[in-house]
Prior knowledge:
The complex is a heterodimer of chains A (386) and B (372). Chain A is mainly α and 386 residues long. Helix content of chain A is 74%, strand content 4%. Chain A has helices at 3-28, 32-53, 59-82, 87-108, 117-122, 143-161, 163-171, 173-178, 183-205, 207-224, 228-253, 257-275, 281-306, 317-321, 326-338, 353-367, 374-381, and strands at 132-135, 138-142, 342-345, 348-351. A two-stranded antiparallel sheet of chain A has the order 1-2. A two-stranded antiparallel ribbon of chain A has the order 3-4. By secondary structure, chain B is mainly α. In chain B, helix 11 (185-224) crosses helix 12. Chain B has a three-stranded antiparallel sheet. Helices cover 73% and strands 3% of the residues of chain B. Chain B has 16 helices and three strands. Chains A and B meet through helix 2, helix 4, helix 5, helix 10 and helix 12 of A and helix 3, helix 5, helix 6, helix 11 and helix 13 of B.
Amino acid sequence: xxxxxxxxxxxxxxxxxxxxxxxxxxxxxxxxxxxxxxxxxxxxxxxxxxxxxxxxxxxxxxxxxxxxxxxxxxxxxxxxxxxxxxxxxxxxxxxxxxxxxxxxxxxxxxxxxxxxxxxxxxxxxxxxxxxxxxxxxxxxxxxxxxxxxxxxxxxxxxxxxxxxxxxxxxxxxxxxxxxxxxxxxxxxxxxxxxxxxxxxxxxxxxxxxxxxxxxxxxxxxxxxxxxxxxxxxxxxxxxxxxxxxxxxxxxxxxxxxxxxxxxxxxxxxxxxxxxxxxxxxxxxxxxxxxxxxxxxxxxxxxxxxxxxxxxxxxxxxxxxxxxxxxxxxxxxxxxxxxxxxxxxxxxxxxxxxxxxxxxxxxxxxxxxxxxxxxxxxxxxxxxxxx
Amino acid sequence: xxxxxxxxxxxxxxxxxxxxxxxxxxxxxxxxxxxxxxxxxxxxxxxxxxxxxxxxxxxxxxxxxxxxxxxxxxxxxxxxxxxxxxxxxxxxxxxxxxxxxxxxxxxxxxxxxxxxxxxxxxxxxxxxxxxxxxxxxxxxxxxxxxxxxxxxxxxxxxxxxxxxxxxxxxxxxxxxxxxxxxxxxxxxxxxxxxxxxxxxxxxxxxxxxxxxxxxxxxxxxxxxxxxxxxxxxxxxxxxxxxxxxxxxxxxxxxxxxxxxxxxxxxxxxxxxxxxxxxxxxxxxxxxxxxxxxxxxxxxxxxxxxxxxxxxxxxxxxxxxxxxxxxxxxxxxxxxxxxxxxxxxxxxxxxxxxxxxxxxxxxxxxxxxxxxx
Lengths: 386, 372
């Protein structure tokens, strides 16, 4: 590995970490799309900042652009408050307009501004090591490494300082007000940190990838855990992992680094979405099927309990009376036999003692409207699940 | 070229006519279908779909090697539809919320699209130029064949919309009721979403991936302010969209260095702003005027009530009193007295006022809500 390669990976990893932390809170607060809005609407701020400073990495430009981000949030909230349009429409109206103003500002001043809309939107990590920070003639490494490093440092310090406050305001705004923690202050604090992070990162990775780095790791982590601390750790690690492996994919394909980092994030999310142990698609579908069968089983047992006459309890009767298809009837019956809830004599189904106890208990819960107690009760009675 | 010249040239110049017609048709169809997106609270779905279409364009090119917009847009359509259904899958099968799903699909698909685009650019058979116009759109590249495609798609969507108008409308406002009536809500839902995806894909070439959502939303959001009737709203949104297209093209053609997409978005943004302020029912300006009027009306009634309190203590309700005694009461001004007199509730003579029977009755019944 050459030294620019190491530097690129370092920058990518730091950007990923700096994005993942505010991203967790944005996802939990259902404000993920604000990051999309901010990442587009900082463009006019960047252009105006560039007029003033002529340097994409100057702190003044970052502050100016971050201010545009916060202004976006304020504008969106103002439009929402008027009640003229819904919340999502407000977001969808504000950021394209600000972005358009940015594009037109660049186009009109193309001669003075060495700034490309493509560059802002897509970024080019490969060029990041060329912009060096020179102090007194000595080379201190790439500028964006320093910029993102300080942003990451600030983000982590704020996270540690205000962890408790962030947690309370995120999950229970009412409680936090009672405790004397202003949800408003935390909200705008988070918005400011997100804006600064987006602005700092756009130069290296582009505005769209910033959105990917903020949302995707947090969303993936959210599928795996419901513990805030674990979620932060997981998203930071997902972010770093995709940043570094994305770099090597890009290296191999000779394609855009930011694009391939986003793709890696997508692949990780897809895998988690499908295979996550509790929240994944496959386990959700499996659980749904299991529950469908178990509900049928309870219906079936209640039916047996209700009817004394043999004709109602004949094995062939199931299909006619409860109107089940053959396969489903067989599954339910098998399950009941396996769990020792029923026994079959001469094709007549009888409830066993255990089956009777189970049925009476569930009936009691259903009558007294305590359906939720049936689920833990199944644990006691069932050896095999649907 | 200034704007006046533009409007003279538009009738004769082939390129200008094609572009203007193209953006107008695009604005109209987006406004029409955008109304549904806005009312279904799917405003940002447009943003996600337009970004999700990018890898489709790149893949279509990689597979077929063709560069005509028909093939590429078909790829965009497929990947847009995949993105849409993935978003639905995420929101319905996991506990992730719709905003997370939208942002996720948007950024990941876009990133994948960029990966493919940069990969294509490095390929030796350098026939790849022009793919990046889908990022920001270039209205100038519209050709008559593109225009024809747009008109056909618009015609089809219009036809479907008219055919399913009743179903769309009822699903929009009461999905549960629709289901109980026996409509196949899933099918209608998918149909509307598909039409929205179609409109977005159609606009990619002209305004590009990034700004497409605004063309979808802005005309509809503006139209929403003027009416509570769905039909009128759709029609108005189509008109606003078409006007944004025409004016946007006119302005960008009359200046150097102005790409059409952003200008159309800004024109549509101006429509929204004007509608927000000046709409006579919901607009901010008239709302403020109504607030003020209500406030003065309330003050007037307060003054009348105070006078009623004084008049009650006298046998003759029309016994005159000095205006002076009202001075310690907040609601008193010369104007308000004049107004009360105009209503015929009091009579003023010099420095004295007297309540009329009509005013007495008005004040007496104020809390019974018998008067209006």
